[in-house]
Amino acid sequence: MSYATQSPSAYNIQHWRFIALVKHEDKERLKALAYKQQKVVDASVTFIVLGDLQGYEKLPEILAPMVESGQMSQEAVDKWATSSSKNYINNDRFARDEAIRSASMAAMTLMIAAQAKGFVSGPMIGFDAEAVKREFNIPDRYVPAMLLTVGYPAPGNSPRKPRLTADQVLAFGAGREF
Ligand SMILES: Cc1cc2nc3c(=O)[nH]c(=O)nc-3n(C[C@H](O)[C@H](O)[C@H](O)COP(=O)(O)O)c2cc1C
Predict the structure, then answer these.
(1) How many angstroms is it from 123 CA to the middle of ligand 1?
(2) CA separation for the pair 125, 17 (Å, rounded)
(3) Ligand 1 pocket member 117 (CB < 6 A)
(4) Does residue 126 have its Cβ closer than 6 Å to ligand 1?
(5) Distance from C-alpha of 117 to C-alpha of 4, rounded to nearest angstrom
(6) Of 18, 32, 140, 168, whose CB has the highest number of CB atoms within 10 Å?
(7) Yes or no: is domain 4-169 CATH 3.40.109.10?
(8) Non-local CB neighbours of 1 within 8 Å, separated by 6+ positions
(9) 125 lines ligand 1 (CB under 6 A)
């Protein structure tokens, strides 16, 4: 988690939030809302990864240590917070894009950190987001971005699937039909 929280985010809002489910019964409740995918309960921990649609509200608090250390003036922080909030207020689509973008950045960092520590992980979008919000009392300001299972590798896990090559996904200088 401490690696995940080092991820970058727009305006440093850090829209990511995580609910960790470690108790068997909690993971069973989630599995029922995730098309009965068994890995939800088999994993040591299954995270509900959330994005905060109103994360910009916390910016003054987030940046306060920089004011205290003299790295930013209070005026600069206020400007930063105002400029950021203008992007989000009355722009639900941008707020949602950003919440999911930041949550995904942090989830990927968590996956890489888990892998480096000898665990395996599985991101999942196969779940009923509204039902998960209801079941786990998640306030409306948070959008579930994905589920993320983390645990020990198990015998019989599927092999990695093929990836497109760098050449197939990279263009220089302008778009093309990939
Ligand atoms: C956003 C996202 C959602 C996914 N949702 C599911 C899912 O609900 N269930 C599942 O079994 N795998 C899910 N996956 C895993 C992908 O199927 C998997 O990463 C892809 O097929 C490549 O497989 P590999 O990483 O094992 O090579 C998801 C992956 C991502 C990035």
Answers:
(1) 6
(2) 16
(3) no
(4) yes
(5) 13
(6) 18
(7) yes
(8) 18, 110
(9) yes
